[in-house]
């Protein structure tokens, strides 16, 4: 028992020291890393006909995904919250353009005008390749990947 506590304490202290040393890096990249990861998982789940978070207990329905993406477009592009001042990841529009491209790669239907986010998706489709390329480059620099992007190759 004591060995587990000692190892756990050492790991916790090591993590805290690492987090303190890397605070600036965290501020610069965390939002993008988490957002891209969540959206990557969402596109994969949608292409596998699984419901999005919030609808997991209901029968599969593609309309759940339309509502999910409408909500994400609203909070990511139409009415985004503030970013950390040191953030250097891709912009919100580029991230959503990447999502739209990745949905196309998986042969998912394009999003049209939506109740909450209006024509945001339609506008972003027009320049999706440029925004998606920015996110692809960011992911390469960060050493991350999404299997959806690999499917496009």
Explain what this protein looks like in three dimensions.
- The structure is a single chain.
- This protein has 153 residues and is an all-alpha fold.
- It has one domain.
- It is 67% helix and 0% strand.
- It has helices spanning 2-21, 23-47, 62-78, 92-105, 120-125, 128-142, 147-152.
- The longest helix has 25 residues, at 23-47.
- It is globular, with a radius of gyration of 18 Å.
Percent strand: under 5%
Topology pattern, helix = H, strand = E: HHHHHHH
Structural class, by secondary structure, is mainly alpha
Q: What's the number of extended β-strand segments?
A: 0
| Number of domain modules | 1
Number of helices: 7
Q: Which range best describes the helical content: under 10%, 10-25%, 25-40%, 40-55%, 55-70% or over 70%? A: 55-70%
Mean pLDDT over the full residue set: 82
Stretches with pLDDT under 50, minimum 5 residues: 1-21, 149-153
Rounded Rg: 18 Å
Distance between the termini: 50 Å
Please outline what is shown here:
The chain has 153 residues and is mainly α.
Write the layout of secondary structure elements.
Elements: H1 2-21, H2 23-47, H3 62-78, H4 92-105, H5 120-125, H6 128-142, H7 147-152
Helix pairs in contact: 2-4, 4-6
């Amino acid at each position: 028992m004591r060995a587990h506590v000692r190892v756990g304490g050492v790991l916790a202290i090591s993590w805290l020291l690492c987090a303190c040393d890397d605070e600036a890096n965290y501020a610069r990249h965390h939002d993008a890393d988490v957002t891209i990861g969540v959206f990557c998982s969402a596109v994969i789940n949608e292409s596998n006909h699984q419901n999005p978070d919030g609808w997991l207990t209901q029968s599969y329905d593609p309309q759940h995904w339309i509502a999910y993406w409408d909500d994400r477009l609203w909070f990511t592009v139409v009415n985004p919250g503030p970013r950390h001042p040191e953030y250097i990841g891709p912009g919100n529009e580029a991230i959503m353009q990447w999502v739209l491209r990745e949905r196309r790669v998986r042969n998912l239907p394009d999003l049209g005008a939506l109740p909450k986010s209006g024509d945001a998706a339609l506008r972003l489709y027009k320049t999706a390749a440029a925004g998606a390329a920015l996110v692809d480059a960011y992911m390469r620099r960060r050493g991350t990947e999404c299997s959806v992007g690999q499917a496009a190759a």
